[in-house]
Specification:
- The protein is built from six helices and no strands.
- The protein has 181 residues and is an all-alpha fold.
- α1 crosses α2 and α4 runs antiparallel to α5.
- The longest helix is centred in the C-terminal third of the chain and has 30 residues.
- The protein is globular.
Amino acid sequence: MAAGMTLGEMAKALHRPAVYLLGLQKRMDLPVLEGAAYSPAYFALLRKIVHLTLLGVAEKDLLDLWRTEKHLLQLLHLDATGSPTWYLDECTRVRHSDRRLLLTNQDLGPEFKARILQPQLDFDARPRGLFSHKEAGDDERRVLERYLELLGRLQAVAAAEAAQLRNALRWLPRLAPPRRT
């Protein structure tokens, strides 16, 4: 799926109405694009959100996690790529999933598992405000702890719902239409 997709194609692939995806874009503050301009990474993010909601994760909790991830990435200066979708451009990556954030899929390095970050990295030489994030009260470790707390709650909800989904799938053979021979 290297080529771009339209909103309608994504809606069909996700088995959701386009109006649902438009609402999701608005609530998550995602860019609304024209035509077949949606990248595979954009689609991967929406697919992940749909799958997580199927696992019983409330959308409000996903929005909280989304905002926390973006905030953490901004504190780490990973928003310096110049891409308008910098926060979701990694969503199709599959290597090293254990060191990636859940929604943005950003790789925070091997230290991430040990809850260690490399703060103060600056990938952009743009001028800053009068005060640094740290001076203004922002702290990467505090935001990381918030992220991990939210993630833990989502994991617990998803694990409980997964058991229900496995049981529900047992009904599928009785609901599937008979095969024609």
